[in-house]
User: Fold these one by one.
Assistant:
Number 1:
Amino acid sequence: MRRLPLEALGSLALSVILAVTIWVAAVNDSDPSLEQSLAAPVPITYAGLGEGLQTLGSIPREARLSLRAPTSVWEELTVDDLQLTVDLTGLGEGEHRLPILATTSRRPVRFVEIRPAEVTLTLEAASSKPVPVVVDPIGELALGYRTSAIEPTPPQVTVDGPTSLVDRVVSALAAVDQSGRREDFVATAQLIAVDAAGLEVPGVRLSPADASVAARVSQLGGYRLVAVIPIIEGEPDPGYQITEVGVTPTLVTVFSATPDAVESLPGYVETEPVDLRGLTGPVEKRVGISVPQDVILVGDETVLVRVGIAPIEITSTLTPELTIEGLRPGLFAASSPSLVSLILKGPLPTLETIQPEDLRVAVDVSGLGPGTHQLTPIVVLLPENVIVQSIVPDTVEIVISTSPIRTATPSP
């Protein structure tokens, strides 16, 4: 076989290198590489943890990456394309400093930087034990009530985690809000692992993580919860009506050293009278409550009475004259009919004094020429708080002419 001289081989190698260089340059020009940080952090997976071991304390769960890749790859790259792993295989108890390993199925991608590049963690033997569930009532019951029994379900749960932390846990705390309650109740509470001082022990797990708490609430002797009835006297000004009556609070607690005194109440107490004579608007007033001599109110001795007062609304029919607007100069117009009926709704004091001349109903003939037109009347002047329920007729005939017509309206 004939061999190529060394000079020929050198020339061939140089040609190949030049071709590759030119190809790389061409690719980089059409799809340049970018080096930048990934916008979102990437989760870290901890693999190979030995049986019976757990990590102690908090450890990094995600890291930031800087990558170099072609523009076309960056356009499609997502966090799901990248994997960060810390290998715990074969490690025993104690403190360990380990690198974060990065891999990807995307090509070509180069990892420039991982932040942090490594993690420090402590492995410890795991253990578990049962602990009782302790209920912590928060807030105060309604006045005159007490909690007679509180029972959590389940009564105990299992705590597991690193042995040093599990050993500190003495109970699972269930905080239950009982503020203002007057009746038996059942609530679900998330459990918190606590030590002997009542402080939370982080880094352990409770199973189950919550408990159902049933509480029995009973009323103390001599106390009673009764309704409040507001007493109203007099009538608003003529033409006005009562729209609502309310009281805050609607229930109050009464007490007597003689239990029979509160038991003999009819189940309600009455307020001092609120006088409405001559009023034309809503009123809010704090008033006292009438109770028997040997009965006292527990808490605030007054309540807020609210009375809504508004004008009586009626309907009324008026027949104002129809006005023609927008008529071009030199034209004449007539409407048929020349009057319309308006059915109005509004406050009695207003509708009793309103006259047809107080209203203005018009049809707009802007841009229209001679001929017969069917147009819709529009109310352009209406007293405040009055609404139009209907216009009769809702369409009128307008005749426009270049010469005066009977009942014509000349343009100004």
Number 2:
Amino acid sequence: MNIPLSPGKKTLHLVIHGRVQGVFFRQSMTREAQYLAISGWVRNRSDGTVEAVVHGAPAAVDAMVRWAHKGPEMAHVERVDVYPTDGDYTNFEIMN
């Protein structure tokens, strides 16, 4: 049985496909995460996608997933793969 580490929190793993690198996706997602009080991380992957883990209140995490489907102005998101995951994060950061 998978028990969340933070009661009342939701954690999702996202893989964002499309034109999502070189368009300030990671920086924009960090700002959105701060606005929504979400913790976790975001990074570029070598296959051209952006990967993120988002952790927070369920409504805030759901709002971040909706944001990821659009991304920043210059991005062109084709699809977002969403997977449940676990983990407990205290801030949101850009990973290398």
Number 3:
Amino acid sequence: MSNERTFTAIGLMSGTSMDGVDAAIVVTDGRDRVETGAARTIPYTDAFRARLRAAIAGTGDMDAVEVEITDLHRDAVRALMAEAALAPEDVDIVGFHGHTVLHEPEVGRTRQIGLSQRLADDLGLDVVGDLRLADMAAGGQGAPVAPVFHRALAGAEARPVVVLNMGGVANVTWLGAGEADLLAFDTGPGNAPIDDWCWRMVGRMFDADGALARAGTVDRVRLARMLSDPYFGLAPPKSLDRDAFHSRVAEAVEGLSPEDGAATLVAFSAETIAGSARWFPAAPKRWIATGGGRHNPALMGAIAAAVEGEVVDADTLGWDGDALEAQAFAYLAVRSIQGLAITFPGTTGVAEPRTGGMRYVASSGSLAGTLASR
């Protein structure tokens, strides 16, 4: 256990599933000591979700949505601090991811909306944002960025082990026995195609309890068509935009019943997750499932049938699988202000370990952030 000073941080995440703002408290030294605290989710209203979707699609007011999503993050922090009885002086830093509206690593471009200075000033707390930009400027993919937190959280877990996060996109972190044994990448779709299908076909945000998929039959011909996408043959590093497969998937499942479409899309996500193992240096003993996808029994069952090694829900290990990404951004914010690396050759393809993030100092009327310690 490290003897370094610990920091109390609040991390924030708005995932590509567009369900709400996750906020979580972490006490950490930014290295191997991680103590997780209270966490909560503030769900988005249907009306805001519609405005966010429209802004991403280019038919809505992105500037207005950016202000609104910032204020929703502010409200989430205030609610969490009240719940945990934390005063502003008790919090050292806030890690703010924002909401990804564009991710094009092949051209070195990513965008997360959210006004870090506005958030800092409203809260009276320093905020670290823009955590992906330095990596991309140095030639990295800018994603995934949570693996170093996964390494700290996994602690004494028997290695090799994989942390599988299933949001709109699915990603894996493979952890070997040594500190440098860190490999991570986006495997392909997570919940996004399933959620989009459910919304389109039955007007629901997601397939609750996997009921739709469990009532359907996988169309193997259409599944094979989707699995032929060149992305799955690319070696890491690699990362994806939420909607990278949208048009191809929509075309592939067109004409299927709601049930068969859901079953086929579940199989698509599960097969691409299982296929990620071809890039691992050694087969994992265990897959630790986090993110919203682990709540879908159809998806979890399909993954368990397709992979080598045990598949477990992160919550069975005492983790909070719904708060993990928010916790990660709290941890990354602490590493950022300490000048510690947050991305690595094995996670984003950056040439050497690199810190990142912009520190926005809480001061009313200030318009500029300051570079985080390097």
Number 4:
Amino acid sequence: MRTGLAGFLSFLLLPAAAQPPQANAPEFIREGQKLVRAGQLEEALALYQKEIEKNPANTAALNAAGVVLDLLGRTTEARQYFQKSADAAPDAQARAVAWRQIAMSYAFDNDCANSARYGRMLYDYWLERGNHYNAGEAANEVARVCIEAGALDEAEKLYRMGTETGLKEPNLSADRRALWNFRLEHALGRLAARRGQKEAALQHVAAAKALLDAHPEMAKQQQPFYFYLAGYVALHTGDPRAALEHLKQANQNDPFIQCLMGMAHEKLGQKEEAMACYKRASGTTAHNPPAAFARPFAAKKLGAR
């Protein structure tokens, strides 16, 4: 296990779903994250900027400051910090960290093209190192950005690329193979729903469920994602009541799920319930596709009250 700055960089480089606890992060990062979790974003930014003043090449501080700026909606400034981090990177790993952060920063602007550009750079980074799993994860991560940006064809291309790459992992277990197939059915179901292809979407939902039924160990972790899929498809094919029933069984701490539930409540004319969902979603402090969609989307909904 890596320690110190190397461990922190490794943490940032992993896709969000694979990130471990940051026990080895620098002290100023841990203090800054406490401020972020408390909603004290400006104070966290000041803390990180103080570290940058001491050492302008401090990539951990540059990346952390960029994350806070994205949460504040100052995405252009955020990318300036991330680019400085990439320029100051002592090695390929640290540079790839900055690329991943830039990809997510563009996601906060709902910019599929630029998010995918940096996501593909991260994909290449992992593939060059023979890590098919993380390469596939990198492709899937920006594919999710592209779906919500409405770039459905690009999203499908990235999801298929991610799946094909992940399946090339040496000595792939049956459950890992099923996981990649489940993820692809999940993506294709959402894409079909967004394209107005209800029957095709429902077929993908059924295929995803069949994979979970056939792999009970995998299902223990993936069951909430099935309800996310079923809820998403119901919402985008005109059944908000069914969508809510499914989404209530998905991850209730996921800000993207909270936004989907808000949309369903709105379609049912339940404005107060919708606003409560958006309020929860607006408070997310993550730097990943769910947060990148949810934080600005929910803020706009709340501002339009």
